[in-house]
Specification:
- The protein is mainly alpha-helical.
- The protein has one domain.
- The protein has 14 helices and no strands.
- The chain is globular, with a radius of gyration of 19 Å.
Length: about 300
Amino acid sequence: MGKRIVAFLFFANYFVGFLAVALSVETVFQLGLPRNSFAYYILLFSATVFYYTFAYSVPETQLVSDNPRTEWYRQHARFIRKSQLVFLGICALSGCWILQKNFARIVELPFYYWLLLILIPLAALLYYGLTPESFFRINLRRTGWWKAFVIGFVWAGCVNLFPITMLRIEHDISIQEPALMLWLFMKNWMFCTVNAIMFDIKDYEDDANIELKTFAVRFGLTHTIFRILVPLLLTGLTAFLIFAFNRGFSLPTILLNLVPFICLLIVAFQLQRPRKILYYLIVIDGLLLVKAASGIVGSFFN
């Protein structure tokens, strides 16, 4: 029973939806800003679950798979179809609620806000090739080593830039220090990119068979950890320290925010041994929850 609940929570992407909300809350806590509306968090959760479930869904008639997640989707294909309709409906209702309540401010958004609102979802759609082929014949997930940077960019945009945009819409709050926001975005981008590369290690054999040149395939597991993951982590850590220094974070706050970076490094070194898929979904995605919790708790010490 316990295994079924765990599989349901992680394979159905509800945990990923919760992570998107938690990381968005971390952003406003670290910036000392008010929380977004409940309708926005409902929209974010539902859209995240819908997106990831749509990307991984398989037809019920597909043959039995050795991949536990693929097989779970095959066995629960009917439930997935119904739940997707529910989440799509929730997205529509919450989106309409936000639109009708804040229509004037949405229309008056400056150009660069609209650019973010278009660019980030477009990158998310192109990542899995979810746009019609007659419109775009691009699948960023098949672009090799830089696909991790794309998904890291999308995640950082959704949990860092979207909440700020929504605060402009809902509370007419503008960030007065755009350069500071850049460092916060960079920290999240590098952290999420490292997280994505660690997932590529899970797909090492499959990617090698189809000659998809991810970091793990191109450099091997050991070199990926030492030459790619560690430098990217140090880049994200440097970006955080610059952000923390400019925000005047206290020492306890800085130390708490160092915890997820240290945990990420520890887990990275453990990936040289084969792991089951749930390990990646629970432990590696769980590091994002550690990051959100550390950032939120740390904000109370400022």
